Amino acid sequence: MPRPLEEAVVAVTGASSGIGHAAALRFARRGSSLALCARSQPALESVARECEATGAVVLTRSLDVADEDAVEAFAAATVERFGRLDVWVNNAGVIAYGEFLEIPSSVFRRVVETNLIGQINGARAALRRFRLQGSGVLINMSSVWGQVTTPQVTPYVASKYAVRAFSECIRSELPQGADIHVTTVIPEAVDTPIFAHAANYTGHRIRPVPPVLSAEEVAEGIEACAESPKREVKYGWAGRLLEILYVLAPRAYRRFAHGAFVRGTLGQPGVATTPGNVFESSPDHSIEGSWRRRHRPTLRRAFLDAVTGALKG
């Protein structure tokens, strides 16, 4: 069985905001020792102070998960500081919206490097140490878009599909008898700052399509997986329905779901293109994007537009 969280050393990538921030706080409250990394040092330090206020001991590193050497050095520093590594949460991620030919190749490549190569780098660093100590839990973050396809967000979908496949491959290579686990977390839309900081080449303001999970719900699931690992954990009924439709009726899925996503996601027009935080970090260390609290009218409009898009097919 995995080490009790009260005694565990937990590393979280992308810990400066959103799900990573929420997960770091949950582990801190459980008494885990923490190693946190993100690109924004000021945001990371703010999160670290919150965790330390609960009594947790925290190591921080500002790094880019696409940099293999930096990730390896982070893992080494974690073991040097705490003596071991028990849980690694591959959470860092970015997103870009727009038609495939409208998204610059550099942006597309960068999304894949962060979301996929970043998790590969984290897995390599973590699994090396898990094998030496004979135990450990690796948690990879995929998405409902790692199960179904949609237009206007191709690099994200491609990277999250690859994360699921990658996780399945390395899971099958785990040594027999070792207490080493690989879990893939698969949520639907989550209320985090990712939408506000997304790369955007659509000409429209981006909004999530309801239903939208809270970051705390997903962080709670990550905490549970660290204690009791499962192969895959899926969050959200809408994502499950989409997966069923995608498998059983792919033509109907393409007809209804694609239109619903595009109409629901694309809000107010006249928005300038931007690479968002794909290349540069954001100082934002918020857990939530406040969609469910301050922007409910926008979510309702997104839902109605999504329904219209589905009906028009």
What this model shows, in words?
- The chain has about 325 residues and is an alpha/beta fold.
- It has a single domain (about 5-310), classed as NAD(P)-binding Rossmann-like Domain (Rossmann fold, 3-Layer(aba) Sandwich), CATH 3.40.50.720.
- Helix content is about 45%, strand content about 20%.
- The protein has 9 helices and 13 strands.
- The radius of gyration is 19 Å and the shape is globular.
- The mean pLDDT is about 95.
Structural class: alpha/beta
Total DSSP E strands: 13
* Amino- and carboxy-terminal Cα gap: 49 Å
By oligomeric state, this entry counts as single chain
- Helix coverage percent: 40-55%
Layout of secondary structure:
Blueprint: E1 9-13, H1 18-30, E2 33-38, H2 41-52, E3 58-62, H3 68-82, E4 87-90, E5 96-97, H4 105-133, E6 135-141, H5 154-171, E7 179-187, E8 190-191, E9 199-200, E10 204-206, E11 213-214, H6 215-227, E12 232-235, H7 237-248, H8 250-265, E13 266-269, H9 296-312
Parallel strand pairs: 1-2, 1-4, 2-3, 4-6, 5-9, 6-7, 7-12, 8-11
Antiparallel strand pairs: 10-13
